Amino acid sequence: MLARRIIPCLDVKDGRTVKGVNFENLRDAGSIVDLAVRYSDEGADELVFLDITASHDKRKTMLAWVEQVARALRIPFTVGGGIASEQDVELLLKSGADKISINSSAVTDPTLIDRLSRAFGKQCVVVAIDAKQQDGVWRVYRQGGRTETERELFEWSQEAQQRGAGEILFTSMDHDGTHKGFACETLSVLSERLSIPIIASGGAGSMADFYDVFTVGRADAALAAGVFHYGEMTLPDLKAYLSGRGINVRH
Question: Within 10 A of 13 (CB to CB), how many other CB atoms are there?
Fold first, then answer.
């Protein structure tokens, strides 16, 4: 079985790393470059960088921020925020990104997934899905969780896979920042329905939560922010814990 990946996430606003709860009440978490260096040195498998206000502000991801982080990294680097065309992706790849993450623009124009997959290869295309449960239905949101859509999590993830997504990054808005664990039951259903890797996001609060997301949730990778940013756990300690409980991780 492939090694499970641990992926710190930098949610970036105004050039700084921020973290909130349920996508709200953002607070400063530090320098994007300092955190990127720390996670690279500590053994993160990948890093995700999300310019969280780009879509809402109707602008592109700030390339200067991407270049600063890319220069500091020795691990794969995924960038998202405001990406809406092949030209956007080309610029980000030239700035040092290895993969790109699309969310709002893909919901608005699903053919973007097809076009990017053809142009750059599906291994480059991560489709991020932010969703929350309403009356038993996982409703998809866009624009950094601000705008509800008619899309439903499972059908949208399957369509994204069919169109050429290489991975799905699913964030449970209900779990985001709560430190109460990932949406493991939902992730398990996603895993049954999809053949591409699933990155779980939202809810990491303890090392046991990571164990659960890989066993109960059957995720291929787990993404977290606050628990790493604020020193609640370190990547080496987490990997040692998971390895000790039989989870295959890279050291």
Answer: 17
CATH number of the domain enclosing 124: 3.20.20.70
Q: Which of 45, 88, 130, 220 is catalytic?
A: 130
Map 156-220 to HEC letters: HHHHHHHHCCCEEEEEECCCCCCCCCCCHHHHHHHHHHCCCCEEEECCCCCHHHHHHHHHCCCCC
Q: Which amino acid is at 143?
A: Q
Number of structural domains, the chain?
1
130 classed as catalytic: yes
What's the domain range around 108? 5-244
Q: Which residue has the tokens 């996982």?
A: 138
11, 45, 209, 220: the catalytic one is 11
243's tokens = 């390895």
> By CB neighbour count within 10 A (0-12 exposed, 13-18 middle, 19+ buried), where does 19 fall?
buried
Per the domain annotation, does 148 fall within a domain?
yes
What tens digit of pLDDT does each residue of 177-218 get?
888 999 999 999 999 999 999 999 999 999 999 999 999 999
pTM of the prediction? 0.91
- Our answer to whether residue 174 is catalytic in this structure is no
